[in-house]
Design goal:
The chain has about 120 residues and is of the alpha/beta class. It is about 20% helix and about 20% strand. The C terminus is likely disordered.
Length: about 120
C-alpha cells in the first residue's frame, strides 16, 4: 500500500467525526431567576442582594427548591426575579466581574440596566 491508500481511510474517519460533532446539539443556556428567599415560593417582596456573593440565582422560575448559585455564565439568561412576589423596588449590587448573557426585566425591577458596571 502506498501513502495515499493508507491516508484515505484516515481522512474519511476525520471527516465523519467532524460531521458528527458539527451535528451535535449545543447545550442550551440556562434560565436563572433572582431569588432571595431560598426554597420558599417566589423571590421575596424586596429581594435585595449581591450578585457574585449571595447564592440567589435559582434554576426554578417559581422560586421554589432549585439549584442556587452566586453567578451565571455568559450564555445564561437572568430574570429579575423568581415568582411574582417581588412587589417592592429592590437593589442588586454587583460584586466583581460577573458573566452575563442576556438579562430580562421582570416584576418590579427597575434598577438593573441603570448600572452595568462589573459585567463582562
Amino acid at each position: 500500500m502506498n501513502t495515499s491508500q493508507t491516508a484515505a481511510p484516515a481522512r474519511r474517519l476525520v471527516l465523519a467525526i467532524t460531521a458528527f460533532v458539527a451535528l451535535m446539539p449545543i447545550a442550551p443556556a440556562a434560565s436563572l431567576y433572582w431569588d432571595s428567599n431560598g426554597a420558599t415560593t417566589g423571590a421575596g417582596a424586596t429581594p435585595n442582594g449581591t450578585w457574585g456573593v449571595d447564592s440567589f440565582w435559582n434554576t426554578t422560575a417559581a422560586g421554589t427548591a432549585g439549584t442556587f448559585s452566586t453567578g451565571m455564565t455568559a450564555a445564561d439568561e437572568g430574570f429579575f426575579s423568581a415568582g411574582t412576589d417581588a412587589i417592592n423596588p429592590f437593589t442588586v449590587t454587583i460584586s466583581g466581574a460577573q458573566a452575563s448573557g442576556k438579562e430580562s426585566r421582570k416584576n418590579n425591577c427597575r434598577i438593573f440596566c441603570e448600572s452595568m458596571a462589573g459585567l463582562e
